[in-house]
Amino acid sequence: MRLAATLALVAGLAVAIALIAWHGVGTVAVVMENLGAGVFLLPLVYAPHIFGVATSWSLLFPEGRRPPFRVTLYAIWIGLAVETLLPLAGLAAEIVKVRLLIRAGVRAADAASLAVVDMTVQIVVLIFWGVVGAAALAGTGSDAGLVWPALGGAAVLAFSVGLLFYAQRGGFIGRFARFGARKLHSERWRGIADGAEHLDLVIREIYQRPLRVALAGAIRCVTRSVMAVELWVAAWLMQHPISAADAAMFIGVAGTIRAIAFILPGGWGLQEGAYILLGHMIGVPPEIALALSLASRARELLTGVPALVAWQWSEGRGLRALVRAGPSLATAPDNEEHRAR
């Protein structure tokens, strides 16, 4: 999977570069030049989305076991960076968020359960925005050839979320682990089965507060609109303004298509191609559509690279502490033996 994701990333980057070259590097560069220092405004416009996602996530924590908001915000910031910039983005982002929560003192079962439930919420939000984007595209009255693919993608996601919800409510994780324990007759698998059953219990505990889960999804739906505002601001700064409906259409349709092709890290190449097609349908020149996609890429780098640096620094600090503690841990048995004598 890692090799496939890396190859997909290389292919996607090649497609993106080819599209830029095809439509004229100079033309696209001129449009991006109009954006200028305004690119540093985009992370500020995007910031409410990060806070909104963190707020949504914090609502899902079991009662009485919610960590400080700064812990949740930090995990979300790092997770979004991993999701947009690294291979195997979606899965890797959830694993990283779980690890960060556990390091902050959250119980492992709580952290893993939150990741599972939150993935379901994320898919529901993508479905909502896919429908919004398709409706906005249909409302343009153009030859909306991407309406059906977007709606089809939303249908696939809806089927996926139905399976996820059924598996979570039905205790599928625990059942699978118990099946493995029976077949392998392993003590380790029996321990995994016990942990999986506890994971199922925590998941059901989260779903026992449906209003909170619904509110978490609603907050995510609302805060994702910030991405449409970001695109609208970028187009305005480039002196090629688009309507709010057009911005919602770009985010909804392209976001759904990008989610379906999750194996492609960051949707490189795919997002650029979708923007060009969508732009053509609403009369946006291809170089402007490409520049809008690149503007969102620039914001991803401006918010994501510092997050990845902070994450690696934190991991390095933890590793250094472990190395320093190594000698004392190694001599601890000898000290105990000496005192016993």
How would the blueprint of this fold be written?
Layout: H1 2-22, H2 25-35, H3 42-59, H4 69-85, H5 89-103, H6 108-138, H7 147-169, H8 172-184, H9 187-207, H10 210-223, H11 225-237, H12 244-260, H13 270-282, H14 286-340
Give a written overview of the molecule.
With 341 residues, this protein is an all-alpha fold. The chain has one domain. 83% of the residues lie in helices and 0% in strands. The chain has 14 helices and no strands. The longest helix is centred in the C-terminal third of the chain and has 55 residues, at 286-340.
Q: Give the N-terminus to C-terminus distance in angstroms.
A: 54 Å
Rg to the nearest angstrom?
23 Å
Output the structural class. Answer: mainly alpha
Uncertain spans: 19-25, 179-185, 188-194, 329-341
Q: Concise description?
A:
The protein is mainly α and 341 residues long.
Record keyword descriptors for this entry.
disordered C terminus, globular, 14 helices, 341 residues, mainly alpha
